[in-house]
Structure formats: C-alpha cells, structure tokens
Amino acid sequence: MLSVENLVKTYRTGDKALNAVSFTAPKGQVVGLIGPSGAGKSTLIRCVNRLVEPTSGKVRLGDLDVTALPRGALRRARRRIGMIFQEYALIERLTVMENVLSGRLGYTSFWRSWLRRFPPADIENAFRLLDRVGLTEHADKRADALSGGQRQRVGIARALAQEPELLLVDEPTASLDPKTSRQIMRLIVEICDERGLPAIINIHDVALAQQFVARIIGLRAGAVVFDGPPDALDAAALTRIYGEEDWTAMRKAAEADREAERDEAERLAGLA
Fold first, then answer.
1. Can you give the residue range of the structural domain that contains 36?
2. Does residue 250 fall inside a structural domain?
3. Is residue 86 part of a domain?
4. 257: how many CB neighbours lie within 10 A of its CB?
5. For residue 198, what are the contacts with CB-CB under 8 A and spacing of at least 6?
6. Whole-angstrom distance, CA of residue 257 vs CA of residue 165
7. Does residue 68 lie in a domain region?
8. Is 269 within a domain?
9. What is the tens place of the pLDDT at every residue in 74-114?
10. CA-CA distance, 209 to 252, in Å (whole number)?
11. What CATH number corresponds to the domain at position 93?
C-alpha cells in the first residue's frame, strides 16, 4: 500500500507546488491524478519516488518510509517503484527485449549489465511480459522502429520487469491517438488488477480517467480538492478543479467517443 502524508514541496522561489497532500492507495487500486497544468501532478509523482525531493511530509510504501532513506537505500527502494513515462524513455538503438531487460539493471551486476548477459530467468520473464503486452513478435526490433503505442507497451513491460510494488505513470496517453489511448489505459488497469499493484496515473484526459480508473484525485494549486469515485466527478467538482467550463458539452463528447468504440468493437466481432 502507498501512503502519502502531508506532502509539501516548496521551491526556492517560495512557490508551493504541493500543499499538505495526503492519501492512501491500497493494493490493486488505480488512481487517476487530474488537474490543470501547474497543479502539481507531475511534482507529486516525482516526490513519491524522490526524483524531486519533498520539503516535508512522508511517503510510505508498505512499511518503508521512502522519504527517510539515505541515497544508497533509496536506490534500492526505487527497484520497488515502477515508472512509466509520457515520452517512453526507451533507449532507441536497443531492441525491444533489451529495453525490457533494462528494468532488471537494479538487480544485475555491473559487468553482466555492461555485457548484456542477463540471467536466464530474467530473459524468460521478459518474454512473458512481452507476451502480456502483445509485443512478442517485436522482441528483436529496435525501439525506434515502433509506433507510439508499441513504445508505451515496451515501457509498461520494462516497469513490470522490476517486479514493482507500485506503478507511477506520467501522462501515458498524451502522445497517442484516442483509440490507442484507451488500449493503453485498459492494459495498465488490467495488469494492476492481475498483480495487485497500486498505481498513480497523472492524466490530462478527464473522460479517459473516468472511463478506466477506480478513483480520481483532483489537484488545484498543489492541494487536493477532490478525492472520490469517477461517477462523483460532477460539474461542481470539475469546476473546483479546473474553473468554469461547459462540462455538459465535454461529457457529451466523451459519451460519443465511447459509443464509437463500442460500435467498432461490435463491427470487429461481427467480422470474426
């Protein structure tokens, strides 16, 4: 379980990016983190694994106080936290398989990793992960030969290769088309359910978050202004998070997208 307690991040300029943020995420729960640009979503995710150092507060993963760890112990703790990036963060010249195996670098000796000689068990597991994300036939392709959706699937498999206890996902669909975005979100949610993984997903697409995640946290100016199930995210809650907008029109557009997806699925089922 992830527990965030009164997390604060204040920059040297005096700007407060996070203001006493608190929440818990139990095993298997996928939390969508929404809010306007500059609300603190990316800062929160990066404070959880201390890519950004919080000013105060605590982050606990199970019985481990991540915020209290010295550097050496922090490096080991980060093996327990998988990160999936918006821009994929793949090594373009390496193959899909090599990128997935890079998720095991924290467990592998320097010379084994330098020579790319990973234990057979790691290689077998990498093949299983590639099968799970639908990329088995692309194992020997270079990463720069893949589409955006395929690259994101490699990023998911690499994060899972760490055998994490938590997933942090930073805008996984920002560079993807709507259909691929739904496929990636569905894959992340299914994997978290299968493995009992809590996940925090920073996502701009409110309708997509409502469609897939079990819980939504809304940030504004670094503070939590909404925390609840997707169906409780009404016009009043959206206004607290984002300000005034025609939320009825947004909902109609989102429903039209979902209907189009259902129609396409039914059409493909009829062709099968």
1. 2-243
2. no
3. yes
4. 17
5. 1, 2, 25, 26, 27, 28, 29, 30, 31, 165, 166, 167, 192
6. 33
7. yes
8. no
9. 888 888 899 888 776 788 888 999 899 888 876 665 445 55
10. 15
11. 3.40.50.300
